[in-house]
Amino acid sequence: MRVSTRIAGAAAIGLLASVIGVGVVTAADHVDAPGVQGNPAADITDFYAWHKDDGKIVAIITFAGLTEVGQPGTYDASTLYGIHIDNNADNVADENVWIRFGQNGAGDWGVQVEGLAAEPVVGPVGTIIDGPLGLRVFAGLRDDPFFFDLDGYLATLDTGTLSFNKDNDTFALTNVTAIVVEISTDAAAGGSDKIQMWATTRQ
Amino acid sequence: MMTTKTIQTFALLAGVVALPALAGCNGDDTGSTDTATATMTATMTATTTATTTDTTTDTTTDTTTDSTTDSTSTTDDPTTSTSTTSDTETTGGDPFVFDDTPADQLTQIDRMGMPAINTAVITSKDAYNAATPADDANGDFVAEITANVTGLHAALDDDLIGLTLTPCAAAACVMQAAPLVVPDTLKLDLTGDAGFPNGRLPADPVMDVTLAVVLLDLNVHDAGTLAGVPVNPPANDKAFLTDFPYLADPH
Questions:
Q1: Residue A155: what pLDDT?
Q2: Least Cα separation, residue A4 to chain B (angstroms)
Q3: CB-based contacts of A28: which residues, under 8 Å, 6+ apart?
Q4: Cβ separation of A202 and B69 shorter than 8 Å?
Q5: What ranges do the domains of chain B cover?
Q6: Is A105 exposed, middle or buried (0-12, 13-18, 19+ CB in 10 A)?
Q7: From the CA of A154, how many Å to the nearest CA of chain B?
Q8: What is the pLDDT of residues A144-176, one digit of tens each?
Q9: Taking the CB of residue A5, how many other CB atoms lie within 10 A of it?
Q10: Which among A127, A132, B178, B223 could disulfide-bond with B6, CB atoms 3.0 to 4.6 Å apart, if both were Cys?
């Protein structure tokens, strides 16, 4: 029943365009845009950000959706990940956290995080890395945190009848690669009570 | 959890960011109904700041500024030249080596703020991924958001009514969703409790909430209505961790 081909978690309701006749015909294995097809490292599947009581903000970027069990994490040295923070309501980033992957001579993958700290934080993937100013980093293969009945959504679009099944999580038993960053709220917010955040990939 | 608090959060968040796109909506919504107007008025009450920024001149300036500023901000990457050095120190004799191309020399491939916006209500998908929140706020994508929401309602309103739910009129849906999805960012009110749409935690039922905001008349229904049923799976297949890194181990 599960879709075996790649679909970005965020692409869950991607076939809307075909239903409403706006000229885009997509298929069940469609990612969120043509430009990220075949480019899993750059294809963001979900973005999470929330503030905690301990003065930290957590931000998570997941990508390479629908990685099958047994497959490794997706690390690409040519992709730059960005977490952006606007803390003065002008819709432009005031703080940027940049994340890259790179290898050592032995071929092991490491992660580098820059921004909100004096020095870049570097360490191997798959481990928790603590840096200055409360910066904490993890990058590696994780269960896909996204849950949604994509099959039901597709059926809804096919039939024009609401067809969701709360017992069918299309993204169950699949993995993603994740970047998890915990940063100082004070450093991110710059004294503001209201901020907005988003994630980008560049190549 | 997702009851009246959610509604209040919407109202709160509506005031977070400037929303010139809302004004753009007004002009685009040729089919604007009384309901839509009423909803928009209610929304605008919470977005006084936004309505004062709705001039075309202002937003055009924003866009121009954004393109420049975004590029400039990407040069907030002063550490790239030193990163290799620090890596060596961190990893001993076999350092990780990282590309040091400045961000402003790379091309933006994808972006994400709110869940599923591009895939749900955007037609120009690659252009959307290459754009910025300032472009969103400028109203660049409001016409296609409106068209897509309208199409969704044409297909599903009969079912919603059959379930004794009250759909919003398409224009009203766009108005009630705009504070959350335009610009396409996660909004965090640090003085309130975290939980979608005040930020997004892994366990939050974002799809049912998003569907409710797009489909239902929030003057009648709570944004947590569909999540309360629930319509979609209410939780992940693996339990999230209570501590960092929060996401469950891979399968």
A1: 86
A2: 15
A3: A3, A5, A7, A15, A154
A4: no
A5: 4-63+107-228
A6: exposed
A7: 12
A8: 999 999 888 888 877 888 999 999 999 999 999
A9: 11
A10: B223
